[in-house]
Write a structure and sequence with these properties.
Helix content: under 10%
Number of helices: 2
Number of domains: 2
Largest sheet: 6 strands, antiparallel
Number of strands: 22
Strand content: 35-45%
Structural class: mainly beta
Shape: elongated
Radius of gyration: 23 Å
Order of helices and strands: EEEEEEEEEEEHEEEEEEEHEEEE
């Protein structure tokens, strides 16, 4: 933390300068203090227990510990912005260099950095660990913007809402990386996932995506995907997303398995997708009905 910069803590996406911030943090070795922007006076707690003023950065874990009470994972650095995720509530946060004398009185806007979690094949939602900061990863601005766009579009909202976005799970392969963007409660109050295909060579997303509906498959609570009663009844325990060479042509294909449910009818739905000439191609799709049970 550069002690010559005025670091203002921001927890939302927009900080209106200079009126939204009244204090900045002054860092000195392993201590820090709050300073009023206008007067330069330090903030002193009048009543209550004395709070520690120490901070610590762990380079091996890429974490920032503030006062022994707030632990952040650093996801990205820039010259004047530090991007972070609060490990306790998973909210995005930032430290912004706030130079009162040199900056104009205009809004400083930061695109929120979505939560992206490194995952592996075969992938099953119930085993996804979104509580371990060691799995949090940072990607380039283009990928972040695409994920934010998918969340806004899927939730019919002009603004990215981190409360509706659970996480984007990154499944990396040699040619394509899948980003499984999961949302909760929008637009129909159901769990849903949009699968994006990213070309690792051209550094671009292909034009279309795959809608992977999680309705009747999982419930989301306490940062966990809990299998539904129907999945348990039909003993659906296998992977949700796998990679394979379906038609034995040496090209990786992607298999998606889920419970298909419409209220009265249940089936095991299996879809195998391939990517050809920048488009998703369906190689196989079948629904096998489960017997009607009382």
């Amino acid at each position: 933390m550069n002690p010559n910069k005025k670091w203002v803590y921001v927890q939302d996406a927009t900080l209106k300068h200079p009126y939204s911030a009244t204090m900045y943090m002054k860092f000195d070795k392993e201590t820090c203090e709050n300073v009023f922007l206008e007067s330069g006076y330090t903030w002193t707690k009048i009543d209550g227990p004395e709070e520690p003023d120490n901070w610590k950065y762990d380079a091996s874990k890429n974490t920032l510990d503030m006062y022994g009470q707030f632990l952040f994972t650093i996801t990205k650095f820039s010259a004047d912005t530090i991007y972070m995720v609060n490990q306790k509530n998973r909210q995005k946060a930032y430290f912004i260099n706030f130079n009162v004398k040199s900056q104009p009185a205009t809004a400083i806007t930061i695109d929120p950095e979505p939560l992206i979690i490194k995952a592996t094949y075969p992938f099953t939602f119930k085993n996804a660990n979104i509580n371990d900061p060691q799995n949090f990863i940072s990607v380039n601005d283009g990928i972040n913007a695409k994920i934010n766009e998918v969340v806004r579009s899927g939730c019919n909202s002009p603004k990215y809402n981190p409360e509706q976005h659970i996480a984007a799970f990154q499944l990396r392969d040699s040619l394509y990386t899948l980003y499984v963007v999961t949302t909760n409660g929008c637009p129909t109050g159901e769990l849903s996932a949009q699968v994006l295909f990213y070309n690792n060579i051209t550094k671009t997303f292909i034009d279309n995506s795959y809608q992977y509906k999680l309705f009747a498959n999982y419930e989301y609570a306490n940062n966990r995907f809990k299998p539904s009663d129907l999945r348990k009844r039909y003993k659906i325990n296998g992977p949700d997303i796998e990679k394979l060479d379906y038609n034995h042509d040496g090209v990786t294909d992607y298999k998606f398995t889920r419970l298909w449910h419409n209220g009265t009818f249940n089936a095991l739905s299996t879809t195998v997708l391939s990517v050809a000439k920048g488009q998703i191609d369906t190689l196989y799709s079948k629904e096998v009905p489960y017997p009607v049970t009382e």
